[in-house]
């Protein structure tokens, strides 16, 4: 039996647990410092066993996944370094930053265990075990950050286990990881929060702001709803990188300010052209850095029962919807439904079915 211990069974830890649980030879043990959480993990059937005892969870474990906010990772490593761990035990984490945790593991004597940093590039603005899903990692990139001292055999063992997540494992240097993820994930979260708070303040004096907030604002600010504790830790932990990125960001905004002041209509157009070109050249979302979403948009006339009709038609064909959202709905104006699916196959079947039913589908 291979024992997998998961510390912090929230969105990320719970999703890993669901990928591993029920597979022959695997025994998944969850850990939380809170007894109420331990009960919850068991009740929801996410783990085989759960405990508040760090020692009980860690001893005899073949793999230990640290799935707590990044500000607590070093503390967990220190506590683990004081235990007698199983020889060859692989300790890994899912934290959104990698430099500090890998440096901490290097400083500590974790032997006979081996530390390999990890960061699944999948997730959402949701948090907690309630949001966990066995599909979360499917087709996403899963970064691991071994260094020259990490035994190849351990890297291969971790890779093999992670196959159960259906993610694509990639090896990246820890510092390079923090530079890149700072730009493509941490900066966007910070900008989303600053923008949302800017509009929140205007809205205090005039609630029309929130009433009119539509597509663009909602698209760019979804991640502003992310967990405050998780994100506070990430930004502080990646402080140096963030400060550098903010400087570049300010320069970009200043350029817009200059172009507007000078009435530089060409320059503004050029900024949209180059950004559009780059944005359109990004890998398709299902192969990209953030998690795979299989979705399409359907134009629908705004009349009663339309959502019911579409879901019934898909249900009749045994096509599973994972989410449905009305993007716009005003009287006499066609609305748009965003339909999400768990697999490419479900999406493909839905597109064919909706086409046959004369709906206009786009991506
Ligand atoms: N949310 C996301 O989309 C992604 C998050 N991550 C990383 O995954 C890790 C976990 O994040 P989520 O699962 O989203 O958060 P979560 O809030 O859903 O789960 C965190 C878990 O850690 C426990 N926890 C919270 N504070 C703690 C503390 N101070 N000490 C010990 N346990 C504590 C919670 O009880 C919970 O079980 C973080 O390090 C985050 O950077 C990585 C990729 C994506
Ligand atoms: O919700 C989203 O789009 C995300 O960006 C999820 C996410 C959050 C944190 C990470 O370290 C990686 C991915």
- What's the number of helices? 14
Radius of gyration: 23 Å
Q: What's the helix-strand series?
A: EHEHEHEHEHEEHEHHHHHHEHEEHE
What is the molecular shape? globular
Look at the structure and name the CATH superfamily of the largest domain: NAD(P)-binding Rossmann-like Domain
Mean pLDDT: 93
CATH class of the largest domain: Alpha Beta
Q: Report the sheet-strand fraction.
A: 15-25%
Named CATH topology of the largest domain = Rossmann fold
Strand order of the largest sheet: 3-2-1-4-5-6-7-8
Terminal CA distance: 45 Å
What percent of residues adopt helix (DSSP H or I)? 40-55%
- Count the beta strands: 12
Kindly give the count of domains. 3
Bound molecules: 1,4-dihydronicotinamide adenine dinucleotide, 3-(4-hydroxy-phenyl)pyruvic acid
Q: Name the structural class.
A: alpha/beta
What about the largest sheet? 8 strands, mixed
List the uncertain runs. 287-292
Assign the CATH architecture of the largest domain. 3-Layer(aba) Sandwich
Keywords: Amino-acid biosynthesis, Aromatic amino acid biosynthesis, NAD, Oxidoreductase, Tyrosine biosynthesis
Family: Belongs to the prephenate/arogenate dehydrogenase family.
Domain ACT: 295-363
Pathway: Amino-acid biosynthesis; L-tyrosine biosynthesis; (4-hydroxyphenyl)pyruvate from prephenate (NAD(+) route): step 1/1
């Amino acid at each position: 039996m291979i024992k997998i211990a998961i510390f912090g069974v929230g969105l990320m830890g719970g999703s890993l647990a669901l990928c591993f649980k029920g597979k022959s030879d695997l025994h998944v043990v969850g850990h939380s410092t809170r007894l109420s959480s331990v009960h919850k993990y068991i009740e929801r059937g996410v783990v085989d066993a759960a405990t508040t005892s760090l020692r009980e969870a860690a001893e005899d474990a073949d793999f230990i996944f640290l799935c707590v906010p990044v500000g607590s990772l070093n503390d967990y490593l220190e506590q683990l370094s004081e235990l007698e761990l199983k020889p060859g035990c692989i300790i890994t984490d899912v934290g959104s930053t990698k430099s500090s945790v890998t440096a901490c593991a290097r400083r500590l004597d974790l032997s006979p265990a081996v530390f390999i940093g990890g960061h699944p590039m999948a997730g959402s603005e949701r948090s907690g075990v309630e949001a966990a899903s066995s599909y979360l990692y499917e087709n996403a990139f899963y970064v691991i950050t071994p260094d020259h001292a990490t035994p190849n055999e351990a890297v291969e063992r971790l890779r093999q286990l992670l196959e159960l997540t259906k993610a694509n494992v990639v090896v990246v240097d820890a510092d390079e990881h923090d530079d890149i993820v700072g730009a493509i994930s941490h900066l966007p979260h910070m900008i989303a929060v600053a923008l949302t708070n800017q509009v929140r303040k205007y809205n205090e004096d005039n609630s029309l702001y929130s009433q009119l907030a539509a597509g663009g604002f909602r698209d760019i600010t979804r991640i502003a709803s992310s967990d405050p504790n998780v994100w506070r830790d990430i930004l502080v932990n990646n402080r140096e990188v963030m400060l550098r990125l903010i400087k570049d960001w300010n320069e970009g905004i200043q350029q817009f300010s200059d172009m507007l002041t000078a009435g530089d209509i060409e320059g503004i157009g050029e900024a949209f052209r180059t950004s559009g070109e780059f944005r359109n050249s990004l890998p398709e979302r299902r192969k990209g850095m953030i998690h795979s979403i299989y979705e399409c948009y359907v134009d629908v006339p705004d009349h009663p029962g339309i959502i019911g009709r579409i879901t019934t038609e898909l249900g009749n064909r045994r096509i599973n919807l994972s989410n449905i959202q009305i993007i716009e709905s005003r009287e006499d104006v066609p609305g748009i439904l965003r339909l999400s699916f768990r697999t490419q196959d479900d999406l493909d079947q839905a597109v064919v079915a909706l086409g046959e039913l004369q709906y206009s589908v786009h991506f």
